[in-house]
Inverse folding.
């Protein structure tokens, strides 16, 4: 258990960031952010050219921006404006009154009981994936678990969101999503970039990938509008949703932006979390053994259901710990719309605020073993000692990810079904490098061998 008395209230430290550091930031932003807090503390101000940048790494500071004075901090940042080239102004990138209207209309589709209703879909998709692994079990040939998690989570969100079986096109769609997200990272790192109308190879790949997603969503919207779609999908709920204040429904463009946001964010983030979880288990067999013992005791050989999740407490803790070490959304940015005061320090209007779950989740004041895989961080007694915003893998406040419950249920069922049947081992000498793209991805994939339990 951690003694929170060691925590301190940070003061703002001004650091002159040389322009020579910019290539370093682009090359390895996770290392830069982590070293910054180690060397300079939890409240850092970088005057960088015309930008006033504030890096926050303390629960009090994060709570102020995400909760206490959240209306003063917008998503009008390079990070979200670049992402909007894919998602438009869906929930992830919109702000203000429009965001609140959209959130009100979409929230009922993510009510916990509705999320639990997708349990069978998650289980079916997982069992199909496990069946496809059998030839690899017999031959010992390795599989890229990162690709497998991308495919299965895409199948799940495709069925739940659109009512479509995407298995036949999963590889093409996953490739399209990765091309789009690669462009977002590339564009956000460029001080000057050519407009998309210039037909460079990167731009052509981006437009082709975006067109593929748009065509898929257009067809799904047409089918649902004509009564051909599954009435229980999230898309059906969104088509029927009306604003409680005006009774207006979403326009076609608004609906497209929300669907593509949920499709892209809803499968890539869960896939990232699952990939890193299986990697961590392969490196910590004693934790895996504990999970398998719990799964066997609770399920006694039958397939898992959502009713089992409250009884799989070690599984829940382990998922939380994987998201601590490798939070998919490793960077959260905001722009101050007006001047503010933060723990006595003046924050000017238009200041850029940077918050990283990756660094906050490794803060030695709040985590007993900050750099180790230690699921006991999430035992109830330990959780009681931590401030709320020492852990925020899905953001926080009003802008808490709308799909956080879906992701937790999905990860719980997938992990349980996999461990019930197989043991995954990292291929010897396979390089594992955390690559901070839109989410944290393994730069070289995650090649693992599959062994029948």
């Amino acid at each position: 258990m951690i003694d929170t008395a060691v925590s301190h209230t940070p003061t703002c430290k001004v650091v002159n960031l040389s322009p020579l550091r910019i290539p370093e930031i682009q090359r390895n932003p996770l290392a830069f952010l982590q070293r910054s807090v180690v060397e300079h503390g939890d409240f850092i101000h970088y005057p960088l050219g015309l930008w006033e940048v504030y890096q926050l790494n303390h629960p009090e500071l994060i709570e102020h921006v995400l909760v206490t004075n959240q209306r003063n901090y917008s998503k009008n940042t390079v990070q979200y404006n670049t992402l909007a080239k894919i998602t438009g102004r869906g929930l992830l990138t919109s702000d203000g009154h429009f965001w609140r209207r959209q959130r009100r209309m979409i929230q009922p589709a993510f009510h916990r009981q509705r999320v639990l209703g997708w349990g069978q879909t998650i289980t079916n998709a997982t069992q199909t994936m496990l069946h496809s692994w059998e030839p690899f079990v017999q031959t010992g040939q390795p599989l890229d678990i990162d690709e497998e998690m991308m495919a299965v989570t895409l199948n799940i969100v495709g069925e739940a969101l659109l009512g479509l079986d995407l298995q036949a096109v999963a590889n093409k769609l996953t490739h399209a999503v990765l091309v789009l997200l690669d462009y977002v990272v590339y564009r956000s790192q460029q001080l000057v970039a050519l407009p998309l109308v210039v037909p460079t190879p990167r731009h052509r790949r981006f437009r082709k990938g975006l067109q593929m997603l748009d065509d898929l969503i257009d067809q799904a919207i047409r089918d649902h509008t004509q009564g051909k779609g599954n009435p229980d999908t999230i898309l059906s709920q969104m088509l029927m949703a009306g604003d409680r204040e005006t009774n207006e429904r979403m326009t076609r463009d608004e609906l497209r932006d929300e669907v593509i946001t949920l499709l892209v964010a809803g499968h890539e983030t869960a896939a990232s979390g699952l990939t890193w979880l299986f990697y961590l288990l392969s490196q910590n067999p004693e934790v895996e053994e504990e999970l398998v013992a719990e799964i066997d005791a609770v399920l006694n050989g039958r397939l898992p259901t959502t009713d089992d999740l409250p009884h799989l407490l070690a599984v829940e803790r382990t998922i939380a710990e994987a998201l601590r070490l490798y939070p998919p959304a490793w960077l959260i940015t905001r722009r101050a719309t007006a001047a503010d005061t933060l723990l006595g320090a003046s924050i000017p209007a238009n200041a850029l605020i940077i918050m990283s779950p990756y660094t906050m989740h490794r803060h030695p004041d709040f985590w007993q073993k900050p750099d180790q895989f230690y699921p006991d961080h999430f035992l109830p007694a330990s959780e009681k000692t931590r401030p709320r915003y020492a852990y925020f893998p899905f953001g926080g406040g009003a802008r808490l990810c709308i799909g956080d419950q879906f992701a937790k249920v999905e990860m719980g069922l997938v992990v349980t079904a996999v461990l019930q049947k197989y043991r995954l081992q990292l291929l010897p000498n396979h390089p594992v490098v955390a690559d901070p793209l839109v989410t944290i991805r393994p730069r070289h994939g995650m090649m693992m061998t599959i062994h029948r339990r």
